[in-house]
Specification:
- The protein has 259 residues and is α+β, with helices and mostly antiparallel strands.
- Strands 1, 2, 3, 4, 5, 6, 7, 8, 9, 10 and 11 form an 11-stranded mixed beta sheet that branches.
- Strand 8 and strand 9 form a beta hairpin.
- Helix 1 packs parallel to helix 3.
- The longest helix has 11 residues.
- 32% of the residues are buried.
Amino acid sequence: MVFMRTDFLKYLETLPGISLDEMSAIRLMNRTDRKYLATEEQLVKLLEMAQDDYMVQVIDDKRYAEYRTTYLDDDSYTMYIKHHNGFLRRQKVRVREYLTTGDVFFEVKIKNNHGRTKKKRIEVDSPDSIYTNETSDFLDKYAILPIKLDELTPKITNHFERITLVNNAKTERLTIDTGLSFSNNVSGKELYMNNLVIIEVKRDSNTYSPILEILRKLRIHPSGCSKYCVGIALTANGIKRNRFNIRLRNIQKITNHYV
């Protein structure tokens, strides 16, 4: 894992802090989500320009958090293929480890026909302890695809560091992921996505957004990006990926990886 760059930290240290409890109290009632791909150089400029309008989430005196996520799928990669083929109703099943706090959750992430994303999760002891009756019942309750827990196996694990910002008006949150790497549980292939930054803006669509103005000035444009699908497309053997090729080429320009 590549530790947070010092030029990122320089600007994070000058932002006001907001606690996890304060962040959890923010409710965006008419929320829209949008992802952007950027370079590390652009992120330095974004953090500099955000100084007057944003606070940074602080956990245990750290202004970023370390995550590890393992995605599960069946042997046919049903959830990956549904996303690739353009199905509007789709889901991801994953185990997310919050390495900064030690928390581990089994999660079902669902996107509906209207583009809204919902996430349901249950706390587990470790990534190796998910095959229980409780977790199986949880999946049966919330999954929108008829997939059983015993049909799912780990397919890919990613690792990254996340900065979380909230605007002063508390009407939007930004997650900024850096240092992303993939380790394919099936093929064994590993890949570090050098220079890639993934920004997700979660905001109340009825209010002014300082970050949208900053993103426009930096010429950072919206680009949908599922970490699971990108990771599988780049590391799985013989997987279908033609509908992701434009997105993968955009990533190639940033990371200089052949795709």
